[in-house]
Amino acid sequence: MALYVVATPIGNLDDLTIRAQKTLASVEAVLAEDTRRTRNLLSHLGLHKPLRTLNAHAGDETIERIAQEVADGRELALVSDAGTPLVNDPGAELVRAVLAKGGKVIAIPGASAVLCALASSGLAGNGFRFVGFLPRSGGDRTEALARIVETDEPVVFFEAGNRTRDTLRDLAERAPTRLVAVGRELTKLHEEMIRGTLSELAASLDDALLGEVTVVLGAAPPRDAVTHDDEAIDARILVELSKGHRAKEAADIVAAWSGRGRREVYARVVALKRT
């Protein structure tokens, strides 16, 4: 009959909605990323349901088989380890497969680390961008950082506690005065929200953070509010090159910092390297 996409608590079990509890009680089986965590949740609710694993390694054959079950009239629930499924979690392929077979997909809303962090950050606006986890290294990471600081609206992303400080430092190189809020262990006993500019938090976070981290980067300042003359641009380019950044990386950093176009700054980088 339907695949129910059910949001589960991200820390506080009381955040499970009544509708979510009723849905989990009514379905024939529950599909979970980690059946151990979901079994604990169901046990807390006094429910005993068949649990089946559906994680990022699920093959096409498995997804097709489950989608066909829904199309044939079964009612199944899809949950993630915590929060709303499909938000940086597996499950999107299953949803598409169910819909392709004419099955129903019904979302049961509830807890979300993204919305929780945004609501308490003090940085929410009329819109925002969510980018999940950042790449750990290499060119993909450089590109991701450049896109983040070039985004005008607030940006929300996840980060591992032991990488949060380095990520803030990388972003501070590009936009030191941009406001940021770092949420740790949201909805849990030791919940914490740290606020400031990127440069302030990059300097003040001396140790790796413990627990799960959600970062909210505030909206970019108006473009005309950022002014740097050519001399300042060239000086910053030389600083970034002296740190060992390649031409493209230096251009990305200086363009984000100055508000100048990336193509214009890259041309200045190339010209300076020739002198």
Based on DSSP secondary structure assignment, what is the total number of beta strands? Answer: 10
Low-confidence parts lasting 5 or more residues at pLDDT below 50? Answer: none
Strand order of the largest sheet: 3-2-4-1-5
User: What is the arithmetic mean of pLDDT?
Assistant: 90
Structural class: alpha/beta
CATH-level-2 architecture of the largest domain: 3-Layer(aba) Sandwich
Biggest sheet layout: 5 strands, parallel
- Percent helix range: 40-55%
Shape: elongated
Amount of beta strand:
15-25%
> What is the CATH topology descriptor of the largest domain?
Cobalt-precorrin-4 Transmethylase, domain 1
Structure description:
The chain is an alpha/beta fold and 275 residues long. It has three domains: 2-111, Tetrapyrrole methylase, N-terminal domain (Cobalt-precorrin-4 Transmethylase, domain 1, 3-Layer(aba) Sandwich); 114-221, Methyltransferase, Cobalt-precorrin-4 Transmethylase, Domain 2, CATH 3.30.950.10; 225-274. Helix content is 43%, strand content 19%. The chain has helices spanning 18-26, 35-44, 60-71, 92-100, 113-121, 138-150, 164-174, 198-204, 230-242, 247-258, 262-274, and strands spanning 2-6, 29-32, 51-53, 75-79, 104-108, 129-133, 155-160, 179-184, 192-197, 212-217. The strands form two sheets. Strands 3-2-4-1-5 form a five-stranded parallel sheet. The protein has a five-stranded mixed sheet with strand order 6-7-10-8-9, sandwiched between helices. The protein is elongated, with a radius of gyration of 22 Å. It starts with a strand and ends with a helix.
